[in-house]
## 1
Amino acid sequence: FFYLDPPYYTKEHIYEREDANAFNQHEELVEALKQIKGKFLLSYNNDPYIKQLYDGCIIDEVETQYSVSGAFQTEIELLIRNY
């Protein structure tokens, strides 16, 4: 079983790591996941491009609360899986 939580698509700027903006391997990740012999669960931000990349997988939309500068914000997160 593989659980993955890559930098969110088009949201790389929110990560504090210096090299987070360098993550542009979303297409490579989906191709690698197609080849694994096991189950995976992947969390991503809600974006039409990500939904297109993972067409054929099961995609659940989950409402999630984030705390930003002390205020709560609700967004939809994608849970993508092959099982």
## 2
Amino acid sequence: METVALIDYGSGNLRSPAKALERAAAGCHASFQVLVTSDADAVRKADRVVLPAVGAFADCKRGLSEVPGMQLMAEGGREYGVTEGLGWIKGEVVKLEPADPTLKIPHMGWNELDIRREHPVLAGLRERAHAYFVHSYRFAVERPEDVIASADYGGPFAAVVGRDNLVGTQFHPEKSQETGLALVANFLTWRV
């Protein structure tokens, strides 16, 4: 049985992402133990690691020196001041500023994914799949080839980024119903 470590960095409720991982594993008939942990040794030993999308860039980075999700893969961010990221994917996290001033921030709701390139975690997603977003900042990715899918909210933004064995989503897979569960199942069965 493989282990998926869901990192608990003390910044939010992890029940929803843990349940999504369990449902996706059952749906793809994969044998995974979901371990919610803040123990660095357990994370190192895990077969897969998930950084849930709860909390803010600066709070989580400063509080634990662990990464809360896609945005911390960036070189830096500007949420709650300038914060250094991990630099795994070139780019910066900046305020979401839609061209249409009537659009509200934070962006909360369903958006269509525009798949830019093939990737195993998006395999089998239906064309124009929708995902659920809640965010006020976006990852301004420097290299277009690192954007796997985008969405639009008064202008395009990176919805899924990835390189090598790393993938991050701006949306909440655990709240994105069929699309999210398919992505999580693909992640669990993905072989690099």
## 3
Amino acid sequence: MAQALGIPAVVGAGDASRRVSTGDRLLVDGRAGVVLLNPSAEEEEAYAAGLRPRREAPEEGRSPIPRPAVTRDGARVAILANIVNDQELDLLPLSGMDGVGLYRSEQLYFNRRDFPSEEEHYAGYLRLARATRPMAAIIRTLDLGGDRGFPPALRLGQPEEREPNPTLGVRGIRFSLERPDIFKRQLRAILRASAEGDLALMYPMVSSLEEVREAQALLEEAKAELREEGRPFNGAIRQGIMVETPAAALCADRLARHLDFFAVGTNDLTQYTLAVDRSNKGVADRYEPLHPAVLRLLHGVARAARSAGIPAIICGELAGDPKSALYLVGLGFRSLSMALAKAPAVRRAICRSELAQLEELAAAMLECESAREIRALTRGS
């Protein structure tokens, strides 16, 4: 949420609450993940000097509507929005975004004690469809569990005990398939709203083709019900998956035959590939998105999507980092989805780059044997 609004934030600060007292002054560096307690005048001035160019320097080619992200040798990259809450939809018209690459539907489940009705789902998705048209918007079906936890509404009728390993438990598509009553309510609402705009849907945390087929079967059931009721919807609504597990990444060529697009969640893909809990500060230094294994999986997904003729979107934090975004373009991705606040810097970085050089750098990165070697290679890029 803080990232989406451009607010500096640091998490995993350990015992900070015991060290900070009322009246203390804090300097929060969200980029470096550092919090300074009662900074000196010199430290404040140093940080202010570092921020001043970002605030005061005129941006090249700045205009009311940002220009498209096109490399100097003519490669177009779609810059899409990650939408956390509906308030962000009001910012879309002047953002210059090319659409919505990730609409988090979980917002409908929080701050309530019951399940959202189909009509409540429909109202939210209808607003999304109307706010984004004629652009496309991709709705991620319910993705809870793991480090996201479950809001009170979804605990109703559920066991009280916590899963021993929630990141490997009932989350994402697994939960939806276990509760088809909840899932179909959401699918019906998305289909109904698709009559008013270019909506697509994607299933999170997929690890097998069987899960895709089961979800698609429920979608067909929802379509049949709406036809009987005489309700309009887009019968050809596009379907995709979040590639977040090594299983999905390694089987991307097979999965692509049954889908209209991929969206890669680099945060979870990195976590599951490296067996590192990204919320555990004890192993935080081992969480490395530029690890050779992660890069090879990303390259494989991009290649599988290209061979199948379907788009592949990056939705994780890597997409919103200007340098990392360039590496992703070099690996073959032409759609990046990020928080609205991240888009201007990424767009400028792409416009200053050349695709040929990015592809050459990506090829060299894929030959590296360690994350340290990759960091050394990219340090001057």
